Amino acid sequence: MAAARPAPGSRPWHTLPASNPGDPMTGHIDPTRETFAAFRADDRPGPIHMLNLVRFREKAAYPDGREATGAQAYEAYGRESLPVFQRLGGRIVWRGRFELMLIGPGTEAWDECFIAEYPSVAAFVEMIRDPAYREAVKHRQAAVADSRLVRMQPAGVGMGFGG
To answer: Sign of the C-alpha dihedral, residues 101, 103, 104, 105?
Structure first.
């Protein structure tokens, strides 16, 4: 990956601000309460797609000091959260490997890129509240240096743009 990676020994997840001073486009790990409330309030019927762009820490930042790479911690998150995700009807509808930022900040590069589908907003909220998921998400918080999570409404596909 050509883009800059977080510096080894960067601050642990629990001390990172919502965004790093001087660069509002980095350091996003968890949603704010306000944004999550807006997410829940727009409980339209039907499935939602969640675009996930994730950059790992070089070294996971576990509060208990356990040793792992960011990638290893994220794998643990995936393994432990999968049963809850599947039980609630979640599935991965697209996955790809980041290659190059053609339009956008050249410093942004992503280790994981995928779209997860949930049957409803309520299913996503139920996942977040599930005790097994809440335990698994600790691995995600230790693993992630920066991320984007974009809610989208599925739409038809076709041959053209803008329509």
So the answer is: positive
User: Could you read off the pLDDT of 129-162 as tens digits, one per residue?
Assistant: 999 999 999 999 999 999 999 999 999 888 888 7
Give dist(CA 15, CA 99) in Å, integer: 30
- 52 in Cβ contact with 113 (< 8 Å): yes
CA nearest to 18, candidates 155, 147, 126: 147
Calpha distance 49→128 (Å, rounded) = 15
Indicate the domain borders of the chain. Answer: 47-152
Could you tell me the fold of the domain covering 47-152? Alpha-Beta Plaits (3.30.70)
- For CA atoms 74, 149, 46, 159, give the dihedral sign: negative
pLDDT over 60 (residue 16)? no
Pairing relationship of beta strands 112-118 and 91-96 according to DSSP bridges:
antiparallel
**Between these two residues, 140 and 2, which has the higher pLDDT value?**
140
Residue 124 CA to residue 140 CA, distance in Å, equals: 16
pLDDT-derived band at 125 (thresholds 50, 70, 90) equals: very high
